[in-house]
Amino acid sequence: MTISVWRYSHLALAVSSFLLLSLAALTGIILAFGPVTEKMQPYRVNNFSDVTLAQALPALRTRYPGITALSVDVNQFVQAKGTGAGEKNPSVYVDPLTGKVLGHPGEENEFFQWVTALHRSLFLHEAGRFFIGLTAFLLLLITVSGTMLVIQRQRGLKRFFTPIVRENFAQFYHVVLGRWSLIPIMIIALTGTYLSLARFGFFDTAHVSPKVDFDVIQAKPVKSPAEFAIFKKTKLSEVESIEFPFSEDVEDYYTLKLRDREVTVNQVTGDILGEVKYPAAVFYTNLSLDLHTGRGSSVWAIILALASGNILFFIYSGFAITFKRLGNRTRNKFTAAESRFIILVGSENGSTFRFAQALNQQLLKAGEKSFVTELNNYARFPKAEHLVVMTATYGLGDAPTNATRLAKLLERYPQSQPISYSVLGFGSHAYPDFCKYAFEVNRLLSHQAWATALTDIHTVDDKSPEHFGLWAEAWSQQSGIPVTMLTGLDLAANARMESLTVTKITPAAQAGGTFTMAFKIGSRLRVRSGDLLAIYPANDHRERLYSIGVVGKEIRLSVRLHPEGLGSGFLHGLTVEQKIRARIVKNEHFHFPGGVPQVVMISNGTGIAPFLGMISQNRKKIPVQLYCGFRQRLTYNLYQDFLEQSAAEGKLAAIHTAFSREGNKQYVSHLIQRDGDKLARLFENGGILMICGSLAMQKDVMELLDAICMEQSGRGVSFYQSRNQVRTDCY
Ligand SMILES: Cc1cc2nc3c(=O)[nH]c(=O)nc-3n(C[C@H](O)[C@H](O)[C@H](O)COP(=O)(O)O)c2cc1C
């Protein structure tokens, strides 16, 4: 069953019962103090559990010759009824071994009586009892649906109590306290339901007293009650009440009402005259009363009070979660049919909508027609040119509730015009299947004839505005739509600019050729290979990003000189010692992974830049295989010395090169095809694959790998992507 069924049931049940549930929980907390205060009265004797009837009854009869009855309540207070030596009050708490008076039963507290009536029947008699019974049953269903949600969230029963990720106060404590109070609440709900059903006569609790055959009553042998076998083996703790013989006539007898049966006993011989077991329903009703009210144990009563308090908290936190979810949904200015930009959102808890809205606002401000909706509302978008998918991942790398139908809808509604798409995954590295569903969406879209990837898939870990900013920059560059001031998420405006000095620059052989350059790293600058360098060539909002390789104390860039290229032209025009203003964009997901058995790097063209830095950084000599493609050997020559030197130092295990415009004209994907088995094994052994370069190369490589992995292990490449074994930074 999907998470949504349980979630909707949980919510619907809670909404339909929260008023009565709040009342029952509140009164339940107050009533729990009844057993606690009662237990504090000094009427229970020590060693009560060991006292037998053979010890207690003779003592009480001697002390109270006129005793007619005795009762033992749930607090194990013994009450003698009748008239006794000098006692005016017909009912007293006594010490069953000595007969000493311990106190007198008082009037029941009026406030507790009032609250009890409210708790049981809302002062509405049978109708009120019915509604309270129904509320208990709904609580039972809420508990079951809540348990299923926790099991799904935790990915199985075995992991029920493993730590959970804290998203916000209400969500975190709703789950944490829910897990701890699950059993008491389940018991409250189950026993409440049972008691209501019992009250309405669903169970047979009637019992008959044993019949006594007076013709066979013996008057011999005469024994003292202390010698009666039944009295010797019956403990006071098993007794509810005892009726004493009315006179000394042999035909008058003891009636013992025990917890599970009624027994009549000859007062002269101690013979059992009759015995009737109660129906099982009596036992269950008593047990339910004990468990529901906490009347037998003050510790349990306190647990019940805490659990009832938690029910109140769940009502508050449940609504807080729901309102937050609803609050994040969006209203559109334009219709889906007229919009050029369609933003599709997969979200369970609503936070992804915030990011979608930030983009939406930007597009609207720029005068564009944009439409935001859930992934499950995917349809034909006749005017769309851009599709942006922002989706979270849940469960075992599954789709959020509002994104479950995408695969079917994509089949049903092929778009009739070409559309560029970009996928942004929201997830958390706290879960093993990081952004898996986003990778799945990316894969699905890549198979649509009408769809062209505008950017590489990006991921946002723990709602990081920084990660979102990275995607926004990439998307903005590709779409040509400036996405600058993302409300509340904009980092660029506040970013710290660095002043960087050029230390080296190699001229490009021709337009379209590659050049390399280096900048000095100041002592305060924190930068790692794989991070990005953002430059502002025209000193305006236009930003250009380059992958950084850190070698020694230098930032190294590899840049392809585009004719008319704003960024590449600007960089190419720099000279040694010249300074530029730039900022470092952290790109954590593309840093060199430590502590892994093996790394494979795949690049084409200038995508080699971050890998140069990573290789130089590989002091632990993790086996690194580099697959790099270039147009001409001439470009490779820029890096050859460095790579061969690294190989000689053990920092690079193998170099595989492909040249697309020379010799046997190979692309890097040909090398991947050749070494497919090796790469599939890399994944199985926990190795990491890193890809940097063009999106087209990435697409080819990923398709190849998908087919190879499917064949070798039965799992598509998205499986390894979601385990963070495939890291890409393509453009
Ligand atoms: C129960 C639960 C399961 C999750 N499972 C995953 C997961 O498998 N993979 C992942 O990357 N993130 C997972 N996440 C993190 C969410 O996808 C992430 O926090 C996302 O930003 C939430 O977006 P939303 O508020 O729009 O639903 C999970 C979060 C929760 C609460």
Automatic annotation (TrEMBL):
Organism: Hufsiella ginkgonis
One example GO MF annotation: sulfite reductase (NADPH) activity
Assigned keywords, A-Z: Flavoprotein, Membrane, Transmembrane, Transmembrane helix
Leading EC class: oxidoreductase
The keyword Transmembrane appears for this protein: yes
Stated name of the protein: NADPH--hemoprotein reductase
Superkingdom of source: Bacteria
Entry's transmembrane regions: 12-33, 130-151, 172-195, 299-323
Database matches in InterPro entries: Flavodoxin/NO_synth, Flavoprot_Pyr_Nucl_cyt_Rdtase, Flavoprotein-like_sf, FNR_nucleotide-bd, OxRdtase_FAD/NAD-bd, PepSY-ass_TM, Riboflavin_synthase-like_b-brl
Enzyme nomenclature, EC number: 1.6.2.4
Boundaries of every Flavodoxin-like domain copy: 341-480
GO cellular component, one term: cytosol
PROSITE patterns: FLAVODOXIN_LIKE (PS50902)
